[in-house]
Amino acid sequence: MRLQAFHKLSYGMYLVASEFEGIKTGYIANTAFQVTSKPPQIAISCHKNNKSTGTILQSGVFSISVLKKELNVKLIGDFGFMSGSDLDKFKDVDTITAKTGAPIVLDESVAWFDCEVREKTDLGSHWLIIGEVLESEQVLDEEPLTYAYYREKYKMFSPKNSPTYIEKAKLDEEKKQEEQELLAEKGGTKQAESDEAVPHVCQICGYTYDPEVGDPSLGIPPGTPFEDLPEEYKCPICSAGKEYFKKQ
Ligand code: FE
After folding, report:
1. Secondary structure element (H or E) that encloses residue 60, with its range
2. How far is the CA of 108 from the centre of ligand 1 (A)?
3. Which residues neighbour ligand 1 (ion) by CB within 5 Å?
4. What strands lie across the sheet with 61-67, from one edge to the other?
5. Measured in angstroms, how far is the CA atom of residue 248 from the centroid of ligand 1?
6. 106/97 Cα distance (integer angstroms)
7. What's the rounded Cα separation, in Å, for the pair 28 and 13?
């Protein structure tokens, strides 16, 4: 099986939210897809360990916000890589409540769907949940974010509980092996990259700090080696400290 093949599957990027007994939960998903048009139904795949999954099953409702292409990735960091137990994810986001009572996140979204659960199928690690759309709205006439663009631009991976999660170490191993095979074919050897130019990857969320680019969101200029970042530097996506980064 070739892991890279899975990255050729196309997806969008969504924020799925729900609320039960006054507690709001939400997570980032790339698996949300329309399965019927009459009635309009959308399926989502939710990990059984996710707090949001329990909330959706208990309340019987959920919302889907379609994320926009150029967005503030902090929203993905907060909702995709942090636990609701450590952080009030809804504190700083603009939400409304629609027909079903599910909270709908408007920040960084181009459209939303308000859904009521109709079916659920046990897939082992995940529940496949099908909801009927009771209401929908376009927030902005802008391009939605795709999973491929998210990976390419933000260099981020799926969280561990995502149905499309691929273990990064295994993917890297596969790529390294291919690279070595290619080099062997050419009869060359790879020159060691100077340590200063080596990108560092956050082991929590997969964000890559590239010294050539720096980190404009935190005012770190291009050309700053990882070692020269201030000790209090934190991953701009998941807020993990420097100690969570490893050389690529
Ligand atoms: Fe991170």
Report:
1. none
2. 20
3. 202, 204-205, 207, 235, 237-238, 240
4. 23-29, 14-20, 61-67, 109-122, 126-138, 40-47, 32-37
5. 14
6. 11
7. 7
Question: CA 204 to CA 160: how far, in whole Å?
Answer: 9
Query: 10 Å Cβ neighbour count for 100?
Result: 22
Question: How far apart are the CA of 233 and the centre of ligand 1, in A?
Answer: 11
Q: Kindly give the distance from the C-alpha atom of residue 83 to the centroid of ligand 1, in angstroms, as a whole number.
A: 13
Please state, in angstroms and rounded to a whole number, the distance separating the CA atoms of residues 31 and 227. 37
Tell me how many degrees the CA angle 83-137-71 measures, rounded to the nearest 5.
50
* pLDDT by residue, tens only, the chain of 248 residues: 998 898 889 999 999 999 999 999 999 999 999 999 999 999 999 999 999 999 999 999 999 999 999 988 889 888 988 877 777 899 989 999 988 999 999 999 999 999 999 999 999 999 999 999 999 999 999 999 999 898 887 766 677 778 888 777 787 788 788 888 888 887 765 555 567 788 998 877 888 899 998 887 778 888 999 999 988 898 888 878 888 888 88
Closest-CA residue to 205 (of 148, 124, 150, 144):
150
